[in-house]
UniProtKB/TrEMBL annotation, chains A, B:
Transmembrane stretches, start-end: none
InterPro entries, alphabetized: HTH_LacI, LacI/GalR-like_sensor, Lambda_DNA-bd_dom_sf, Peripla_BP_I
Pfam families on file: LacI (PF00356), Peripla_BP_3 (PF13377)
Domain HTH lacI-type: residue ranges: 9-63
Organism of origin: Bifidobacterium merycicum
Domain of life: Bacteria
Designated name of the protein: LacI family transcriptional regulator
SMART domains linked to this entry: HTH_LACI
Amino acid sequence: MAGKNERSSSITNVAALANVSIATVSRVLSGKRGKNDDIARRVRAAAEQLNYSVNYAASSLRSDVTNSIGLVIPSATESFSAQLLDELEYAIDADAQQLLIGIGADRSAQTDRIESLLSRHVDGLIVVPGTETDLTETLDRHADSLPIVQIGGHQQSFKTSMVSIDESASMELIMRHLVERGSHAVAYMAGKEVSFESAELFTMFHTQVRSYRLVSHTDWNQFGERTVQRGYDCSMRLFSKDNRPDALVCADDAVAFGAMVALHTLGLRVPEDVRIVGFDDSPLAATTMPTLTSVHPPFEQIVSESLRLIASETGMPAHISLPPQLMIRESTGYAKV
Amino acid sequence: MAGKNERSSSITNVAALANVSIATVSRVLSGKRGKNDDIARRVRAAAEQLNYSVNYAASSLRSDVTNSIGLVIPSATESFSAQLLDELEYAIDADAQQLLIGIGADRSAQTDRIESLLSRHVDGLIVVPGTETDLTETLDRHADSLPIVQIGGHQQSFKTSMVSIDESASMELIMRHLVERGSHAVAYMAGKEVSFESAELFTMFHTQVRSYRLVSHTDWNQFGERTVQRGYDCSMRLFSKDNRPDALVCADDAVAFGAMVALHTLGLRVPEDVRIVGFDDSPLAATTMPTLTSVHPPFEQIVSESLRLIASETGMPAHISLPPQLMIRESTGYAKV
DNA sequence: GTGAAAGCGCTAACAA
DNA sequence: TTGTTAGCGCTTTCAC
């Protein structure tokens, strides 16, 4: 397994074969040359024939451009990060850019990965902060040496760019949908209170409840863990009372899933007796029984906006908020009206 | 966002500050120098003070070592790949190595990513082939330019290394466990017939059935999709008959999950009436109700063996088969005896 | 538009 | 053990 026997062909070989200078080869291959004349064709043919590909080490040593992007996520087993990673890798033109990945759940681990990516001189950095992780200090410190895009979380800095999901729009979508389906009494199992998104969603939930004149009680709406267990436990408590909601909004698909199991146990039907909506549209959502209506983060746009911000020449950090899509499935049933 | 204003300090600055030559700095910092005397300390202090970190582009241009390894997986939303990625990233010393990732589901996409990683001169390549994807030709072609480790799949080549899960051991574990719990009649929902692992597991299942003198019928044991739907449909058919198994082995947690929903619908209890075992120990398994007993791939060992093979100096490709662990949870109940 | 040549930061060969 | 120096492959002046 030692290897690297035959050195792969370099720009010099191509130049020799095409009978031009290495400078010309460089210009043709990097597109910094207008014409597509005989010389250009000869160079390309020679490169093809020798199976040439640039040595990125040499290229970036000289030009300070590494053709690589760093991505830092809390974990690949978390559905949001995993879907984002898939989408990002897909969107990147693999011939021209390479994705370097760093995984870390807490501040210290994430900071390590960021520093390490930075020392590799990535051209841009995309960061999904872990829950309750504030990376502002680290990111700000490097904000003027490369473009940084933060995905979600609470933006505390105007030195880095940010792409996030419009949480208010999410809640509007959900509540309008539930009302259209005929729901009157809605409960909300929110995420952790400390999270910025949770707070925003919670506020918007109440705004919507008032605006549609829905029924909701203080003890129906609580912050908590984003786990199956929490959904189950809270639902067992919530739905065994007489005075119970006919719709449930969950801050996470896992919570919704736990709720569905609890409802099944209690003999309540989804969606006939209770409609359920989840968040993040994990792969789970499409496979539960009944399938789960869930808020689908706009991964494609998140990725394209992030890449655009990284490629952008203007040094201006931008804050972009993207509307999600509601994936309507069986758990909110079909129209009642 | 333009940036790269101040050029970061180079080895020359460190050398000047420590009052030694750049060669000495290089040697000290790369550990190619035994002593930890005054000079070494001075160099390290200077590097620290200047917040120096090596320029990997320059380093690898000169030495052909990029301190990076490539990982190619079918998708980050698939539980096996996601867990492997998390584990691998964790195992890598982020200061010294960087993980480059390529994602592609089919042969053409995976080959693209492999070629692209190769053109970046990664020091080693770890590949998880997509289902039914044979990468032998591509991998063999590059086998002598760098160490390549294939994870799982059917090894057709002896030019590259391979780390896989001992499927026979998996099935042995499962069957022994089920017998110990008091099961007599076992059904098996296998994966796709074309997959090498499926075939091996299917054979071993029958061997174990015979060896423990268990009851099983031909129409209980079928190949099929690894989906919730398949688990549900097959179980509805299988368990509505009088003559039904008291244990079910599923080639995938999703299948097991579908089966559990079906059993619930049919009024059969897990584990009292039917014991269920899944495969791959997805995050799902620990959260179903009841929680699902599942075969846990030995991620930690897979990663450490893979890294060892990549680092190994011997050019010998090795084939390693690692025993998995059975995560015993509620779906197979507690001892009966 | 093209070629010659400098030099990015580092490591390794060689010299002391 | 240390320092001096060549040169990895490329991009980018600079001169033509």
